[in-house]
Amino acid sequence: MGRDDVRKADRLRELIESARAAVAFTGAGVSTASGIPDFRSPGGLWSQNRPIDFGAFVASPEMRREAWRRKFVTDDATRGAAPNPVHHAIARLVAQGTIACVVTQNIDDLHRVSGVPDDRLIELHGNGTYATCLDCGLRRELADIRPAFEATGRAPRCPACDGLVKSATVSFGQAMPQEAMRAAERATAGCDLFLALGSSLVVYPAALLPRMAKRAGAPLVIANREPTDLDAYADLVLRDDLVEIFAPYAEAQTVRHGHDPATPAP
């Protein structure tokens, strides 16, 4: 590790150790070490299984069938993915009272699996591990939907209201969940450190959150493999592998702020 890398690691540690209400904003780069590819990369899953636009899904039975076919192909490609040291580090920092809220663009559920409580987790783009009815909101489990789909080739309908059933994610052309976005904005406005991790920061309105935190006076840390348009606004920019950066926090045993690492802060 070069001198500049050591300096940046020390600065990150100082910022994390002084935080009491940090926000961790996470993107696809957090989950690549779990075997989930960055879908936008050349040759990634989207090149063969690009998600269907929301308008086409609603309008066309053929597109709904194709959307579900692509969904299960993608699920098979990422089956067995488990939280990596970055997820575990974030969960530990939540438990220690350093991170007050995790705002994620990811749909893989790995933050929850790693131990981040539901009341500390905001999934801006939904969750790909289950489905919901677009009309009544009834939750459906994929394990129930898939056998029937593969047997009949028909896209699922809601057993309660006969509405269209869709993976519980935000598709292209679908409105962002306003309640989740407002919750993310509230957490950002009150944070004392904003960690933008593994995100290209190009998807709006979510990419407005780092600017909001900076305007509110919170230090902004951007850790991403590639440059982002917001690097010039950041107090600290890290280009190293996220696992290398955050592995020490996943392994740390020190309890700070008077909280047990296994217990969420109040």
UniProtKB/TrEMBL annotation:
Listed Pfam families: SIR2
Active site: 125 (proton acceptor)
Xref: SUPFAM superfamilies: DHS-like NAD/FAD-binding domain (SSF52467)
Matching CDD domains: SIR2-fam (cd01407)
Keyword field contains Hydrolase: yes
First-tier enzyme category under EC: transferase
Amino acids binding Zn(2+): 133, 136, 158, 161
EC number from the UniProt entry: 2.3.1.286
InterPro entries to which the protein is assigned, alphabetical: DHS-like_NAD/FAD-binding_dom, NAD-dep_sirtuin_deacylases, Sirtuin, Ssirtuin_cat_dom
Domain named Deacetylase sirtuin-type: residues: 2-258
Keyword Hydrolase among UniProt keywords: yes
Keywords recorded for this protein, A-Z: Hydrolase, Metal-binding, NAD, Transferase, Zinc
A GO molecular-function annotation: metal ion binding
PANTHER family: NAD-DEPENDENT PROTEIN DEACYLASE (PTHR11085:SF4), NAD-DEPENDENT PROTEIN DEACYLASE SIRTUIN-5, MITOCHONDRIAL-RELATED (PTHR11085)
Name the record gives this protein: protein acetyllysine N-acetyltransferase
Lineage, highest ranks first: Bacteria, Pseudomonadati, Pseudomonadota, Alphaproteobacteria, Hyphomicrobiales
Annotated gene: cobB1
